[in-house]
Amino acid sequence: MGVGRDAVWPALVSGRSGIKRIEDFDTSNLKTNIAGVCTDFRPEEFFDERELARLDRVSQFAIAASQMAASEAGLENGLLDSYDAGVILGTGFGGQGSIEEFCGAFFGYNKARRSAIAIPKSMYNASSSNVAIRLKTRGPNITITTACSSGANAIGHAFHQIRYGHAERMIAGGVDAPVTPVVMDAWKEMRVLSTKNDPPERACKPFSANRDGFVLAEGAGVVVLEELSAAKARGAKIFAEVIGYGSTADAAHITYPDPEGEAQAILRAIKDAGVSPSEIDHISAHGTATKLNDASETEAIKRVFGDRAFEIPINSIKSMIGHSMGAAGAIEFIASVLAIADQVIPPTVNYEEKDPQCDLDYVTEGARRMNGHVALRTAISNSFGFGGNNAVLVARAYE
Amino acid sequence: MTREAAQSIEDVVKNIIVAELRVDRNQLGPETHLMKDLGADSLDALNIALRLEEAFRIKIPDDAIPKFLTVGDIVKGVNEHLAAR
Questions:
Q1: Are the CB atoms for A69 and A223 separated by under 8 Å?
Q2: What's the CATH code, domain A241-396?
Q3: Which residue out of B43, B53, B65 would a mutagenesis test of the A interface target, given it has the greatest number of A Cβ atoms within 10 Å?
Q4: Alpha-carbon distance A117 to B49, whole Å?
Q5: Using an 8 Å Cβ cutoff, are A18 and A321 in contact?
Q6: Which of A50, A106, A111, A129 has the highest number of chain B CBs within 10 A, making it the mutation to test binding with B?
Q7: Rounded Cα gap, residues A157 and A263, in angstroms
Q8: pLDDT tens digits, one per residue of A235-276
Q9: Helix, strand and coil percent figures for chain A, each rounded to 5
């Protein structure tokens, strides 16, 4: 899609897909040869050669995105160099690429070499720790891994750090770099990836009856959360307020979604925010484009909102980005915040056929611009992960 | 040891340092300090030790690594390990 808000957000609003053919490894044994790969990301713009040797791609994403967020928030002036500033990142796969490389070196099936930095390069908390090292944040530093809801849970927990006075500023988000031969093969065997390879940008069809699975992606989404009075005191640009977070476990099946667990996460987030379901103006859906997720999520939304479910514009930007796993919840939260800030909802692209199980307003006809008398004030962002890990965030316009 | 063999050990040591630390070969003299002059840290030292073990087929004991401070130290240490083998 691009690097940075100025590249990604306009692309989402214009309905442009970032899904492409995989070119980094042989896909001839796979049924899917497409993914959301960050081809515009140039690591050398952020790191020297020596730094790069120590950083898995996921840490590179994390540092680059965090640095961009800190810079945009006007915090590259020592304000993060504090015990009152922290980092919470979510990731589903951590340093997966490095793990595969080091396994190859150990078992002797690739050209990689054994290394003394295998552990610090591939450990799950490498991303959040590397961000702290780069930005000098000395407060709470935590990694959350709840599969596809990791990024949303990370932002939710960072929100709590600030709400309960453990930190004044938090770098929070999700990161993942799982487009590897091993992970692609593993997803293939679960039969949940779309095989609509041609053309790549049309593959992911959330909520459409002819959807056939998700498209794997890599990426990062990072925000700066700041205690309101601190942000106001320094005249920070405020995109929106985080007002609620809900988290539940299905406690049912390791992969099969349960609409009740999802509905309860939405209800808890709304209750935490101190608003009523009637105040929710937009839902950024988890919307993976698997048969099961989209039907279950639609049912969950109906259980929470009743008849009003049909009136709420719901989108899935995974239709364009693909499913970036632990990053998805953070990227989608950012999209919901920017939707509030710019009063425009990006479309769900590639919608082609009505599905009786998915009969809500999925913003399928292009971006939806609010027209003055109907403002977009409060939005929720849904994230539902394997393991039955559900996380929902509520954002509100700052007025 | 012949002068040529000694020269080649020094060459291999320098190649390893250049590759691991991404430094200019011209920076490396016998007194060049890996940490103070080249910015290496303990993880770099471990990786250099690993590469030395592979290149010279030696086993470097844990307590020898902290003594590998300069290029000269490493060349001397490798020579000692090779002689003791």
A1: yes
A2: 3.40.47.10
A3: B43
A4: 12
A5: yes
A6: A50
A7: 20
A8: 999 999 999 999 999 999 999 999 999 999 999 999 999 999
A9: 40, 20, 40
CATH topology of domain A5-233: Peroxisomal Thiolase; Chain A, domain 1 (3.40.47)
Nearest-by-Cβ selection for B50 from A50, A54, A114: A114
Amino acid at A313: P
Q: Which fold has domain B3-84?
A: 1.10.1200
pLDDT, tens only, A109-167: 888 889 999 999 999 999 999 999 999 999 999 999 999 999 999 999 999 999 999 99
Q: Over the Cα atoms of chain B, what is R_g?
A: 12
Helices then strands (H, E): number in chain A? Answer: 13, 13
Residue B62 is classified by DSSP as G
Domain residue limits, chain A:
5-233, 241-396
Concatenated DSSP letters of A249-292: E--S-SSS--HHHHHHHHHHHHHHHT--GGG--EEE------HH
